[in-house]
Amino acid sequence: MQLGRVTVSAGSEPYLIAEIGVNHEGSLDLAKQLIDFAKQGGADAAKFQTYKAETLASKHSPAYWDTTKEATLSQYELFKKYDAFGPAEYKQLAEHCARVGIEFISTPFDDEAVDMLAPLVAFFKIASADITNTPLLRRVARTKKPVILSVGASTIDEIDGALATLRAAGATQIALLHCILNYPTADENANLRMLGDLAVRYPECVLGYSDHTTPKPGLPSLVAAWLLGAVILEKHFTHDTALPGNDHYHAMTIDDVRSFRLEIARISPLLGERAKQPIPSEEIARHNARRSIVVARDLPAGHQLSESDITYKRPGTGISPLSWDDVIGMVTNRALAADDVLQWADLTNA
Number of structural domains, the chain? Predict the structure, then answer.
């Protein structure tokens, strides 16, 4: 799957999306600063959210987040606080991302957002809540750009339906992001093993994980997801987790991103090849640490071997114990001493 300048596939190094979302709180300068922080930390992409409160939620939409962290009880009221950016601001943010060398993306929440973002993004990210939004899925798919689809709070039938809709409308490269639609997500609810089910059901899709757990040092939730097959990793990003607001307290910071990259660099060399086979550094062990058939006592030439005449010892430079049954009954063609490592040249058929 092509994500801007980076190609990802099963087993790739993590592609990390810093989900700035609306943590800029309407400040273009802060949004640019967050882009800079994301790049400096080691993120691959800086992601925003493009919506207008009027097209996203009715004025009667109740909260679904932890209201002890974000006290706003109306979705409309919360979204209205952070929907000030328009086409000019997103164009500036895309240009700033290009200057600093990080991919710009933004999740669209209506048709106008799709059309406005299409010239600015290399691929689209669709939120979990829109997995059943047929017209929006079609609008995104018709751009012919790669699609990353979060599947939080969805059934298998809903995932199947979304994939069918996207493909019918022209999407050919689709990634699925495991996600739990809790803000925040308790560790015991993260259910990262669901990635294995997605891998079995959708082998044609690149997999990822969108994380809403409270960050821990080294971001173990993202590390574990990557080890379980999630190549695309997404997490909210902020400059200050102590700020009030729905997406600050469960977000990662520049220091979190840096420590995550260090952890991946430490773990990555341990993973190695996928196919089980001996590697070159094991060759000496294959010869010297494995067993050979060894003569158990002095034997004359012309002696027909019985099981009591042989044993198995290191090194593995003689006849392998795999041929134990074949050797029994053969005849020595020279005198052999106890502890001699048996060779095929020492034996003949009876």
Answer: 2
Which ranges of 175-321 does DSSP label H, i.e. alpha helix?
194-201, 220-227, 254-271, 283-288
Report if residue 59 sits inside a domain: yes
Cis status of the peptide bond prior to 244, with omega within 30 of 0: no
Does 223 reside within a domain?
A: yes
CB of 305 within 8 A of CB of 329? yes
Task: With CA atoms as reference, report the closest residue to 14 among 250, 223, 241.
Answer: 223
192 lies in some domain: yes
312 & 260 share domain: no
Residues 205, 158, single domain; the answer is yes
Quote the domain boundaries for residue 211: 2-271
What's the rounded Cα separation, in Å, for the pair 213 and 185? 5
- pLDDT tens for 67-109 read 777 777 888 887 787 788 999 999 999 999 999 999 999 999 9
Q: Give residue for tokens 């979302």.
A: 21
CB neighbour class for 124 (10 Å; exposed up to 12, middle 13-18, buried from 19): buried
311 lies in the same domain as 256: no
pLDDT in tens, 193-245: 999 999 999 999 999 999 999 999 999 999 999 999 999 999 999 999 888 77
- Of 260, 226, 121, 236, nearest in space to 184 by CA: 236
Give the pLDDT score at 168. Answer: 98
Final residue of a domain: which of 221, 245, 271?
271
- For residues 83 and 20, state if they share a domain: yes
Q: Same structural domain for residues 150 and 87?
A: yes
HSE-up (13 A, CA, CB side) for residue 185: 24
The beta strand positions in 51-118, using DSSP E, are 103-108
The 10 Å Cβ neighbour count of residue 320 is 14
